[in-house]
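Pair request: fold both.
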Amino acid sequence: MSEDKSRTVRVWCDGCYDMVHFGHANSLRQAKALGDYLIVGIHNDNEITKHKGPPVFTEEERYKMVRGIKWVDEVVEGVPYVTSLETLDKYHCDFCVHGDDITMTADGVDTYHLVKAAGRYKEVQRTAGVSTTDLVGRMLLMTRQHFRQGPLEYDVGHEGSSQLGLDSDARSPYTGCSQFLPTTQEIIQFSDGKPPKPNDRIIYVAGAFDLFHVGHLDFLEKARAEGDYLILGLHTDPIVNRYKGSNYPIMNLHERVLSVLACKYVSEVVIGAPYAVSQNLMEHFKVDMVCHGQTPIQPDADGSDPYTEPKRQGKFKLLNSENTMTTEKIVNRIINHSHSKASSSNTLSYQSHS
């Protein structure tokens, strides 16, 4: 049966998508829900530099990150900063979707004025409690505070907190900055909820996956290629802090859950996975292979290898994604970027046009 173009509602989104986070992913999820096929246009480095200063991430990194989001059907590279009717028509899109914030060109013109005037514009709500600006703020304002341990590890119900963790009562013990507190509904919206098929080869990976980036994406693509169903175990904040130190993690466990659920290679997420991969865990999830990337394997609290059991079973494999990006490198890049912008007296503005 041939595809009927008139019956397929094609949706257009565009933006910089610099430092892609789950807020961007959530807006794309909402945009996809308004139609059947989602096309995302991404501005190149020159276009962004012209209108708002150089991006933190290169166009190639930004293209790859958006392609990794599971609701995106197609990516168009190097689109104009102002969304035109010609662009919508060229890609047979019915309308354009953007968040409920105003984005301007260098000349102060609303980048969506043309599609708004033509009635081919729809708005979705931005994800309250997270923005690129907020994440950058966490990195620039890292102050080591008391770490939550034991029974306080999951204490996220801050008394008096009303703005999804944006007020002064909801603070990360690691960065001293605001936390995003998702509901179960948001996790359900991000999750596929599909169990593995009877004969699926099940792959398990575990880690922090803090500030989800292209290095993570390339590793998960390799891990997914090892089987049919990829389960990702996320370590709790205190465990991540134990092996990462300093003020890590930048993103709390709940934020990291949404970040990895938005990735098209991830089938299921274990929230608060144990650091050591046990026989019980492997039997429970029917794991065929446990994979780890090129980052050094830190010993467990008792000094033991967390992968002792999968290695004993002959079900452990080291993968090389050939991508050297790390969360630490991103933090350094952000800090250097902000310092260079500040020294050139530019306005520090990381708010994403997306």
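--- second member of the pair ---
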Amino acid sequence: MIVMSIWCSSFSLSSRSLAIAVVVSVTLLYFSYSFNACLLASISRSLQQSNIRNLLALTSSARNDTSDEGNSSRSSRSSNSSSVSSTSAPPAQTVTSSLDGAPKYQLLRPQGLRPSRHLPDTLIIGVKKSGTRALLEFIRLHPDVRAAGSEVHFFDRHYQRGLRWYRHHMPYTIEGQITMEKTPSYFVTKEVPQRVYHMNPATKLLIVVRDPVTRAISDYTQAASKKADMKRFEQLAFVNGSYSVVDTNWGPVKIGVYARFLERWLLYFPLSQLLFISGERLIMDPAYEIGRVQDFLGLKRVVTEKHFYFNATKGFPCLFKSEARSTPHCLGKTKGRNHPHIDPGAIERLREFYRPFNNKFYQLTGINFSWP
């Protein structure tokens, strides 16, 4: 009996110890699991905060990137920048504010790509009232083309400000994108060809041309819309009111003598760096002309006929979407403006005047535009 009692007492103590051990083990496991879970959550939060700090640091460094941007420009640009004296540049805009209107860059920044400004690779140099605005808006549909929104007039009005000033008027681009600028008066300004050559002799030049008589009337129409008491077209285009002598000093007539201006450009640039776009065909078949432009610039043909529709009321092609707007729209109320009635005799005399200059232009370009 005594032995049995001792054995039962021993068994009871053993069971109690086992129960305590189990409870202690479970408790330890619970605390260990909780600790590890908290540790992992803390590490995750630290990594997220680190990524945010890196992104902020990237944006901050991009804001402070001013003079270093030019050093990262294409070698062909920077090699000629010393030919023009630089003056103080306007206050640099922050990258964040400048890129707010370009959603594509908001996606690129977290990936470590830094947009920067560059001198233009390509210039639309003319001709005024031939379709330069349409060309710019159409080619800007391409994701690899970035263009200054307004005419900068650097080479004809602001050249003394220097290339640094000019570069600060260009849009931000990333590697592989083309920077473009449009100022139609470049084509007819005497000093511009040499100045562009000094900036970059490899610059590609786009020139939109149209029938010089129609161009002159369009030029006059634009001016008359801003001046109510302007003389009639026939009075301005001819000397002493007679159709026998054309006034070649009048701007709208003078600009149409394309061959004279082109000869200046060919002194500095080979014909292979110039592309001539038909203003008439740009209206009737924009996809064809934009296809030629994309080929000339070495771009994939992204902009096609699916991007355009013809507005019968304006008699002008419009866009289903653009870089700034995702809805269908035309270029503006000033495009496709109705021309005033011009005496047919005056038109015929102007055609006779331009004919030899047109033929010379055909010879220089190797293109017969078949103007009347």
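Observation on the second member. The chain has 15 helices and nine strands.
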